[in-house]
Amino acid sequence: MAGELPEYYFRVRENGALVFRIDTENRQRRIDMDQIAVVNVKNGEIKAHGDRILSDDDMEIIQEWMEDRIELLAERDVDDIHRAVDHMNLTTQWAQSRATDEQLEDVTDALLLAMHDLRSVLVRKKADRLMKEHEE
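The structure assignment produced for this chain is given below.
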């Protein structure tokens, strides 16, 4: 393989990752991945795998990865919302210019309820922020 491999590999899963230490220093010169921990980004939990004891270096690298991962997921959340706004605009254009009566009948109630729910939450949250600003 060209280049240096990282010392750690994080196999991402829905709520975090499995953490592996990479070892290429063996007689067969193959890549060995030794699982050392399980990470949960939702609750910040780091569990050593099996009987392992994680070193301070292990913990530091895992915590850095967790911080970076949490930041990346937050950025993706906001990006997803911006895409949802674009999709709502495309949906509006579709409803106005191309949708048939049957298609509109199929989606109107679901869209109206989802938009009503979203509007209610957004209005309440905006009012909360304004009240908080006013109190400060």
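Interim note for the steering committee: The chain has a mean pLDDT of 93. Residues 5 and 22 are 8 Å apart (CA to CA).
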